[in-house]
Amino acid sequence: MKIAEGVVLVLLGTTFHPSSILMNLLYLAGLWAVLCKSGVKGWWALVPCARHYKLGLCAGREPEGRTLAVLDFLIIATGLPDIFLPLEPIVGLVLSLTALIVALADLVYQIRVFNGLTEVYGRRKPWVLLWLMVGFVPALLWGLHRNYQPLWKVEDIRSEAANFFSGKKADVLDKGLTVNLEERTVREFFRKKYLLRDIHMYIQPGHMVLLLGGSGAGKTTCLNAINGYEKAKAEVVLNGTNMYRHYKEMQYDIGFVPQLDLMRGSDSVFRTLMDAASLRLPKDFTVADRKARVEDVMNIFGLTPVENHMVDKLSGGQRKRLSIAMEFISNPSLFILDEPDSGLDGVMARELFEQLRLIADQGKIIIVITHTPDRVIDLFDDVIVLAKDAKHTGRLAYFGSIDGARAFFGKESMEEIVKSVNRQEEGGEGRADEFILKYAEVQHG
């Protein structure tokens, strides 16, 4: 009996009671039909945990569905020991309290998913209570009655932009950076998820480029795909060399400065740069050659006066300059920086970006993410704007000059441009799809 009860708990999510089993079988039958109506294979209703993730997809609430699947698993996990094992009182109490907390969280996320489902089916909010209290009733009714139909299906074209792909690749030239990124995907919760799609651009040497986009638009993912850290289905060519095919040869021709530095606080500035030189410069460089290069770089970034200072004793601006100098040791052609001005005041940030401008003027390509772009926008040549389409995939909404971006979006500031492509629930205008299509039309024009 104990084993049978455990099997029922896993498969149906209920205890071994005839009435509970019957109601859950009816619920699963109705859920099968609801999933089918929404364009999802009905048999997912029979898969524990996954069934509510798929329902979240149907409801347009994928993040909530993902969390609900995890909570469903925890409910099963906390219930099984009590069925199969004799528990000590204290262990039983802990499991009971844990199960209560998980059940409350599960209830919250069920409400969110069912609320989304009522919107998709064009029904009123009281239906949410019916889903929670007697789920088999609305499941059967919505699943089997022809008068209950979803407004859209999971695989439907929910917007023209979400399923439009330009197919227009950027030209590959001997100088500069060409990015032809078809897609960047991951496997997540029983399906393939697109992080980025259809991003094509050519950046000229000597250009300093701003990368804009709202939260979750894929800015860091895009940078990682460009520098080869996270390979995508893409062709990335720097000065005539394919970076994916020749990654080991090209890795020192790319400088990448992340948000957080990994420097040892107990080392001096000079020692830190000498270590970087040992790692990043060719093996045929002598100690004297490395020292000369370190001295040149310290002079470029204004670090010579503090060369003997410990890293822990540097100011925020000095640490940022040092982290950039470490990457500049190898004299890369492409420099990528993820929020280099994070934590800096306006004056220090301005000085930092002016230094980057000087580096770009040497014929280097600089790509920068910053959350305060307007205070230094005059130093940039171009701007990349990424936006999430209706399927939450990062897409190219614009690439071009700063003045061109102002005209394209009808906005004066970069922050206003980001707001225009952000979703309404994120405080934006929700116009991402509009601009994705508009930019594609301009490209094909």
Describe it for me?
This protein has 445 residues and is an alpha/beta fold. The chain folds into two domains: 2-144, no CATH class; 161-444, Rossmann fold (3-Layer(aba) Sandwich), CATH 3.40.50. Helices cover 47% and strands 15% of the residues. A six-stranded mixed beta sheet has the order 6-7-8-3-9-10, sandwiched between helices. A four-stranded antiparallel beta sheet has the order 2-1-4-5, covered by helices on one side. Strand 4 (233-238) and strand 5 (241-242) form a beta hairpin. The longest helix is centred in the N-terminal third of the chain and has 32 residues, at 89-120. It is elongated and about 80 Å long.
Quick recap of the structure?
The chain is α/β, with parallel strands linked by helices and 445 residues long. Helix content is 47%, strand content 15%.
List the helices and strands and how they pair.
Layout: H1 2-12, H2 18-37, H3 50-58, H4 62-84, H5 89-120, H6 126-133, H7 136-144, E1 177-188, E2 191-203, E3 208-213, H8 219-226, E4 233-238, E5 241-242, H9 247-250, E6 254-257, H10 269-280, H11 287-300, H12 316-328, E7 334-338, H13 346-360, E8 365-369, E9 382-388, E10 394-401, H14 402-409, H15 414-421, H16 432-444
Parallel strand pairs: 3-8, 3-9, 6-7, 7-8
Antiparallel strand pairs: 1-2, 1-4, 4-5, 9-10
Mean pLDDT: 84
Which sequence of SSEs, written as H and E, runs from N to C? HHHHHHHEEEHEEHEHHHEHEEEHHH
The number of strands is 10
- Under CATH at level 1, the class of the largest domain stands as Alpha Beta
CATH architecture of the largest domain: 3-Layer(aba) Sandwich
The low-pLDDT segments are: 1-12
- Specify the structural class: alpha/beta
- What is the overall silhouette? elongated
How helical, in percent, are the residues? 40-55%
Q: CATH topology of the largest domain, anyone?
A: Rossmann fold
Number of discrete helical segments: 16
CATH superfamily of the largest domain: P-loop containing nucleotide triphosphate hydrolases
In angstroms, what separates the terminal alpha carbons? 70 Å
Using only C-alpha atoms, the radius of gyration works out to 27 Å
Strands side by side in the biggest sheet? 6-7-8-3-9-10
Beta-sheet strand percentage? 15-25%
Tell me the major beta sheet.
6 strands, mixed
- Number of individual domains: 2
